[in-house]
Amino acid sequence: MTMNKTKIEVINFKKSFGQKTVHEDINFFVREGECLGLLGGSGTGKSVLLRSLIGLEKCDSGKVLIDGEDITHFSERQFSSIRKKVAYAFQDGALFDSMTVFENLAYPLIEHTSLSHSKISTQIIDRLEEFGLTGTEHLYPANLSGGMQKRLGIARAMMIEPEVILFDEPTAGLDPFNTRRIQETILKLKNKGVTSVLVTHDMPTALAVCEKIAFLRKGKIVEQVVVEQFKENPIGIISEFMQGELS
């Protein structure tokens, strides 16, 4: 069996804000089509690390590679090409409140493609159906439930069919039904070959959708596990975190 190529690689990543060191010597990689879970307690910089993969934060030293290309010192113009292949699903959805669902989904297509209005409309209707949001196109985000807003945020991130999607706490604050829908969405995207990184506190979701889990603590990745092996033998730091024995 051929091994999928490495899609994302982080090497000796360091990041500080003033005197506070957030990350120190972080190393991990994600292969094409895999989902990596980034876990850790509150304040461990999971979202900072995720944002660095798309240039929203800059590391102090180290490297971030996408498809083998070091993006660490990219200009904003260079990042525009990266953001066509790497999408970010923000924790709060980052939806435009003054735009309808249709307009929110159309925005990335208008910005990054030259598709006709009819083709944009077709893609949006298809995407709404795929994400269980049929019939919401004329509504505003405020008219949607929390779970629907989360799905809309992921749908918008997927509009230009990126190769990588970065999920920032996609199940936070959701009930079990909507959490399961988000899990199913991530699995569908993986089946299409999409690579992903999932920042979460939600251990059941991480176990449901990830191949690997990395645990952040005190600025370092202190444990990485392969999910299938962990399910068979759940020991170590991540197990302690699951059981509430570790903050």
Describe what this molecule looks like in 3D.
This protein is of the alpha/beta class. The chain folds into 2 domains: 1-74 and 164-247, 3-Layer(aba) Sandwich (Rossmann fold), CATH 3.40.50; 93-161, no CATH class. 36% of the residues lie in helices and 26% in strands. The chain has a 6-stranded mixed β-sheet with strand order 6-7-8-3-9-10, with helices on both faces. Strands 2-1-4-5 form a 4-stranded antiparallel β-sheet, covered by helices on one side. The N and C termini lie far apart (39 Å). The model has no long low-confidence stretch (mean pLDDT 89).
Provide the low-confidence segments as ranges. none
Question: What radius of gyration results from the CA coordinates?
Answer: 18 Å
Largest sheet: 6 strands, mixed
Q: Could you tell me the mean pLDDT? A: 89
Strand order of the largest sheet: 6-7-8-3-9-10
Counting helices, strands and paired strands, the structural category is: alpha/beta
User: What is the helix/strand order?
Assistant: EEEHEEHEHHHEHEHEEHH
Full CATH superfamily name of the largest domain: P-loop containing nucleotide triphosphate hydrolases
What is the CATH C-level name of the largest domain? Answer: Alpha Beta
Number of DSSP strands? 10
Domain unit count:
2
CATH T-level fold name of the largest domain: Rossmann fold
